[in-house]
Give the backbone structure.
Amino acid sequence: MSGASDRPRRQLFHPGTTIDDLKAYMGPFVATLGYRFNSDDEFVEAVLTAELGILETAGDVYCPCRIRTGDPKEDAQIVCPCIPFHREQFAAIRKCWCGLFVRTDVEDDTELCGVIDEPGPGQEVDVPVCRASDLAPGTVRHVKIGKTDLAVVRVGDEFHAVSNVCRHAFAPLSDGIVEGYELVCPWHGWRYDVRDGTTDHPGADLRVYPLFVVNECVMIRLSV
Ligand code: FES
């Protein structure tokens, strides 16, 4: 019988680790989560080389495209492979943040949204949230990027993103329904216009986030 004990455990790495060591551990680890290495071998080597450099200086194989906060708890969530901590987001974009791992059901890696460069403090970063075809018109999808909790809505061919937290009693709006440009809260029915976040409850408008589509990939612009 298979169970949690069959799953590979997270491994600590020490200076002197090689790329082959990382591959031998990470391949089976991510396979249990439904992922595999990117089929671009050169890219994989480049990312893993970067991780080994980070291991030497920072003591662990942190994802090279994420910024470490200095908070050990927070930073533990970006130790590669960080898939368990970002499942929903990665499921939406069908790869991990940098593209080192892609979902096993991806047939052509080149179709995936691009790699995100590491942004500097105070910079903006464009984050792929899904492919346009992944979100049907009139539907909403939950996306979490770091601490930013979003409801991404498609109305016709337009995409909009608002904060996922209802201002009434904090329901997850991504569980709500889309009616025209309105996102209707699943708990008590407050309505928000996804174009500007407005509601008819004074002072309770939602924050909106800029979304745009590049090569069929829906991107959100965030400040980091
Ligand atoms: S929690 Fe959204 S309307 Fe009450």
